[in-house]
């Protein structure tokens, strides 16, 4: 079968990345993902600087079709090597003594990568979470997460834009997580808890997939 230029380039990139992979045990992340499966991901951190701060909590849950697989979830505390900023504690409530018995960061990343597999990632403000994870796994793999990333706020923006008449396409759309959940009629859990935030992102993703198909 002849490959299209785009597919050929993707395969070449995949080969190059696998060739340079630091730990061959994680080649499975480049496999074809299971059909209609995703992983919603959220992290809490020592602060908001992606170059300096560290992950202290990870929450993830698998999605299959229209179902959020609550029994297939991951909830980890991670022991950081730097102090948690007071501002961060006020947001997520995790103090240094709360994570002192957490996993070593490398062990936590290995568990996370095995949980994700090759499934695409879903999240709210996912770019930040992925940047934090990528920095943590780079010493292990020599590269970041290869999975496709799906931003819930971008899906919501597209959905709301479709509801507006063309002359209002420049209108401001509120992309706060609480607004998205309220507008979609979805239940809100306690925010800034990694697993709760992952589950809420999963709920929003499933609902928005349906709405975007219908609109």
How are the secondary structure elements laid out?
Blueprint: H1 5-19, E1 37-45, E2 55-64, E3 67-77, H2 86-92, H3 96-99, H4 105-116, E4 121-123, H5 126-141, E5 149-151, H6 152-163, H7 177-183, H8 194-214
Parallel strand pairs: 1-4, 4-5
Antiparallel strand pairs: 1-2, 2-3
What does this structure look like?
A hairpin with a 2-residue loop joins β2 (about 55-65) and β3. This protein has helices at about 5-20, 85-90, 95-100, 105-115, 125-140, 150-165, 175-185, 195-215, and strands spanning about 35-45, 55-65, 65-75, 120-125, 150. It has eight helices and five strands; from the N terminus they run αβββαααβαβααα. The longest helix is centred in the C-terminal third of the chain and has 21 residues, at about 195-215. It has one domain: Ribonuclease H-like superfamily/Ribonuclease H (Nucleotidyltransferase, domain 5, 2-Layer Sandwich), CATH 3.30.420.10. About 30% of the residues are buried. The chain is globular.
How many H/I helical runs? Answer: 8
CATH class: Alpha Beta
Instruction: State the strand order across the main sheet.
Output: 3-2-1-4-5
Largest sheet: 5 strands, mixed
Label the CATH architecture. Answer: 2-Layer Sandwich
Low-confidence stretches: none
Mean pLDDT: 91
**What share of residues is helical?**
40-55%
User: What is the approximate shape?
Assistant: globular
Count of distinct strands = 5
Annotated CATH topology? Nucleotidyltransferase, domain 5
List the helices and strands in order: HEEEHHHEHEHHH
Radius of gyration: 18 Å
CATH H-level name... which superfamily?
Ribonuclease H-like superfamily/Ribonuclease H
Structural class: alpha/beta
How many domain regions? 1
Strand content: 15-25%
How far from one another are the termini? 35 Å
């Amino acid at each position: 079968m002849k490959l299209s230029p785009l597919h050929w380039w993707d395969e070449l990139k995949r080969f190059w990345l696998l060739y340079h992979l630091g730990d061959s045990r994680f080649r499975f992340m480049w496999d074809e993902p299971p059909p209609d499966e995703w992983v919603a991901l959220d992290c809490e951190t020592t602060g908001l600087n992606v170059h300096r701060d560290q992950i202290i909590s990870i929450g993830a849950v698998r999605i299959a079709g229209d179902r959020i697989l609550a029994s297939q979830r991951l909830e980890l505390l991670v022991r950081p090597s730097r102090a948690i900023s007071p501002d961060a504690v006020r947001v997520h409530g995790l103090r240094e003594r709360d994570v002192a018995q957490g996993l070593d960061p490398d062990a936590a990343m290995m568990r996370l990568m095995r949980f994700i597999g090759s499934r695409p990632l879903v999240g709210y403000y996912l770019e930040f979470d992925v940047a934090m994870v990528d920095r943590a796994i780079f010493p292990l793999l020599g590269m970041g997460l290869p999975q496709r990333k799906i931003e819930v706020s971008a899906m919501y923006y597209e959905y709301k834009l479709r509801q507006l008449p063309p002359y209002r396409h420049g209108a401001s759309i509120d992309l706060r997580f609480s607004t998205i959940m309220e507008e979609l009629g979805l239940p809100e859990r306690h925010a800034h808890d990694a697993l709760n935030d992952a589950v809420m992102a999963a709920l929003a993703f499933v609902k928005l997939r349906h709405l975007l198909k219908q609109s």
